[in-house]
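Re: [ENG-882] Designed sequences occasionally contain unexpected residues at chain ends

Forwarding the minimal case from QA. Structure tokens:
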């Protein structure tokens, strides 16, 4: 079933997945009466006006630190979350409950609202597909996607719950078993899943950046993405008018449980109960529905007219952590379009010492040396093209690798050896080196255009080369569309020129990541969600 929507009058923050501006390992303050310290998914940033009102009404203030679902599960499982938080608040507890060490640390959950993950397309595209007059299931959607009758953007399922839910939902629906996915069923539906994901032309680590990128491309006459798979609430908030397609065979719904940790103090338990009661009151539930476009969690509050489908079929969730992890790994190594990343890496003299060591460690971590849960999914994937372009006073020769799907370790070992051999000396020719990287990408794209392509620019200082940011901007404006549209992800490190890096990200449709107050490894892992 479908629904035509007009642009929202005022869109709230469209955020999901992990945030590069908060370190979930860092406590958000000491426990104090009247304060609930919450490790959360960053899509909950749009609840701040509701929580400000709750603080005035109840005396309970919420202090957020944002992270992604997988990374958050790891913090809970290891006990790190207990050191600085009283509760967790993700879009779903389903994954946490599959991790034994995390599950036992979860206390009382309170469901506050809900939002299914659905497909949003322009009305003209829905009509062209013939979906404006009939209900359509995931199998038909996958068939149309495989024929490239439409394209879409989706978030990284290891970094953002909307992508995670979409992956689980389409896999469960295509299996047609009516029961939880396991490894055998994932293998059985892999051909259909690959067909479906062949139409994904935009990826992101968060729903907010995904929506922003989609809006930029939607205004481009040569746009390569038709729609989005995202939370219903995000699609309802989109400035671009979209028609929502609710697959007839079911969806995976986020139910946003505000969940105490078992280590929470008695004061935190009282604060949790008081806040939960307030948030589930009828008036507040209606306000949440009106302002965030999420569905109320209490049955006495009726859905308003913007929700086209009232009763949703909920698809079964995988029954084990190994099944979920296997599905995510299969997505990266086999199902989705492979990625291509150019790493433009500052190895100037100012990088000597701990900084060059940090760069080596960050790259080595991406070769599989990082055994953490988040590290497992952020490693270089099968079929991926990786090019390292170290620079100082000038760019060094590019080092090109392609990670095989079947036996990746030898190539990963080569990348690791290269990373550990990086040394620091010379000046900082940022823009001439970055410009030279486009010559590498031009050849690779001409030979194989059907990849997600991005540039990571890491520098610890200001440019000392003969070309400046204005020169690069003029160069960038002259690029053909297939190169001009490549996002650049600058990483702030050391004494980076923040304003210039912001300018570079903005002109390319990229995003700045800050590693000045955290490890370079953490920033590199987060960037992986956007590649």
């Amino acid at each position: 079933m479908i629904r035509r929507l007009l642009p929202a009058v005022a869109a709230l923050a469209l955020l999901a997945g992990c945030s590069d501006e908060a370190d979930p390992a860092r406590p958000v303050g000491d426990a104090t009466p009247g304060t609930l310290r919450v490790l959360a998914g960053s899509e909950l940033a749009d609840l701040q006006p509701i929580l400000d009102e709750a603080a005035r009404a109840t005396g309970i203030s919420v202090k957020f630190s944002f992270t992604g679902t997988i990374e958050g599960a790891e913090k809970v499982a290891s006990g790190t979350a207990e050191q600085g938080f009283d509760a967790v608040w993700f879009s779903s507890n389903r994954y946490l409950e599959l991790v034994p060490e995390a599950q036992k640390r979860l206390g009382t959950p309170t469901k506050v609202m809900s939002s299914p993950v659905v497909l949003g397309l322009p009305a003209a595209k829905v009509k062209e597909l013939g979906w404006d007059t009939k209900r359509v299931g995931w199998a038909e959607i996958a068939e149309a996607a495989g024929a490239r009758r439409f394209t879409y953007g989706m978030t990284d399922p290891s970094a953002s719950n909307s992508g995670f839910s979409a992956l689980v939902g389409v896999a469960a629906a295509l299996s047609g078993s009516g029961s939880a996915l396991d490894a055998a069923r994932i293998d059985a539906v892999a051909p259909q899943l690959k067909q479906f994901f062949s139409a994904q032309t935009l990826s992101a680590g968060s729903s907010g950046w995904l929506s922003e990128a989609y809006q930029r491309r939607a205004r481009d006459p040569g746009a390569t993405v038709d729609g989005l798979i995202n939370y219903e609430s995000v699609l309802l908030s989109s400035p671009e008018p979209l028609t929502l397609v609710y697959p007839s065979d079911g969806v995976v719904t986020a139910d946003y449980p505000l969940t105490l940790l078992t280590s929470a103090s008695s004061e935190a338990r009282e604060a949790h109960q008081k806040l939960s009661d307030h948030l589930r009151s009828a008036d507040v539930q209606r306000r949440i529905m009106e302002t965030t476009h999420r569905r109320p969690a209490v049955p006495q509050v009726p859905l308003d007219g913007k929700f086209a489908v009232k009763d949703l079929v909920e698809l079964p969730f995988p029954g084990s952590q190994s099944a979920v992890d296997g599905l995510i790994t299969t997505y990266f190594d086999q199902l989705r379009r492979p990625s291509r990343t150019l790493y433009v890496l500052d190895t100037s003299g100012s990088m000597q010492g701990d900084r060059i060591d940090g760069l080596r460690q960050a790259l080595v971590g991406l070769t599989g040396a990082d055994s953490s849960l988040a590290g497992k999914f952020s490693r270089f994937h099968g079929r991926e093209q990786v090019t390292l372009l170290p620079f100082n006073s000038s760019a060094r020769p590019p080092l090109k690798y392609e990670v095989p799907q079947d036996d990746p370790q030898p190539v990963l070992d080569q990348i690791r050896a290269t990373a550990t051999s990086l040394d620091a000396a010379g000046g900082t020719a940022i823009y001439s080196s970055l410009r030279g990287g486009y010559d590498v990408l031009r050849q690779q794209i001409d030979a194989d255009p059907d990849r997600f392509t991005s540039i990571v620019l890491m520098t610890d200082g200001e440019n000392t080369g003969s070309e400046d940011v204005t020169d690069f901007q003029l160069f960038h404006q002259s690029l053909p569309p297939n190169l001009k549209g490549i996002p650049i992800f600058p990483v702030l490190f050391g004494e980076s020129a923040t304003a210039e890096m912001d300018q570079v990200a903005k002109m390319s449709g990229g995003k700045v990541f800050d590693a000045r107050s955290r490890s370079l490894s953490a920033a590199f892992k987060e960037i992986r969600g956007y590649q």
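QA comment: On inspection the terminal residues look reasonable. The radius of gyration is 23 Å. Proposing we downgrade this to a documentation issue.
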